[in-house]
Amino acid sequence: MAEQAEHKEESLMEKIADKIHFDHSSSSSSDSDSDTKSAAAPVKPNIWRLFGREKPVHHVFGGGKPADVFLWRNKKISASVLGGATAIWVLFELLEYYLLGLVCHLLIFTLAILFLWSNATTFINKKRPHIPQIHLPEEPILEIASALSIEINRAFSVLREIASGRDMKKFLAVVAGLWVLSVIGNCCNFLTLFYISFVLLHTVPVLYDKYEDKVDPLAEKVMQEIKKQYAVFDAKVLSKIPIGPLKDKKKV
């Protein structure tokens, strides 16, 4: 009996030791697995994005319906908007139609149809057509005017800051941009320029959103080269130009 009791105790101790060893091995294996997973998890590099953006292109355009139109999320609406702009450009630019004449002809056509329809209902014993009352709400118009005034005042403040001679880099960038716009303006009129900008807004963002992983590295190389050339130009030319007494007065 004593031998059987000792044998049972030994077997029980062996089972407990095996269980402890299994728990320890499983915990160590899980720790090693987690360590290997954490070691194998790739660290996301800081990818350079065009214009220093951190959000997707859809969020840059506001993330609403205008962004959906520009990025062709709804192809029917985007195609209809671009087709309407193309029709307007063809009508006014290629066919040389005038805006005032078009508006007058559309109003004549609409009034003639409604007038004939209203008089024809008396002969066929039907109700007259319901002509809705058109009323422009004040709030959206005031919001648009307020937004335009804010942007115009901001542009004036930027121009004033540039004209004060504090930032040579910004001054050169604005002058170069205005010169490019003047060259483009001499080649085409305002309507064609507006149409080209509208087409670019409907093509360039969607292409960039599709191929941004290929465009961003090339843009990074171009920006680095521009910075190198600007540093050379700054060292040879801009640093030798006297900035003026504006900063000296502020320091005093």
UniProtKB/TrEMBL annotation:
InterPro entries documented for this protein: Reticulon, Reticulon-like
Primary location class: endoplasmic reticulum
Membrane disposition: Multi-pass membrane protein
Keywords for this protein: Endoplasmic reticulum, Membrane, Transmembrane, Transmembrane helix
Subcellular localization(s) per the UniProt record: Endoplasmic reticulum membrane
Example GO BP: response to bacterium
Cellular component per GO, a single term: endoplasmic reticulum membrane
Entry keyword annotation includes ATP-binding: no
Domain (Reticulon) ranges: 66-251
TM region(s), chain numbering: 77-92, 98-118, 171-201
PANTHER family with a match to the protein in the record: RETICULON, RETICULON-LIKE PROTEIN
Protein name, UniProt field: Reticulon-like protein
UniProt organism field: Anisodus tanguticus
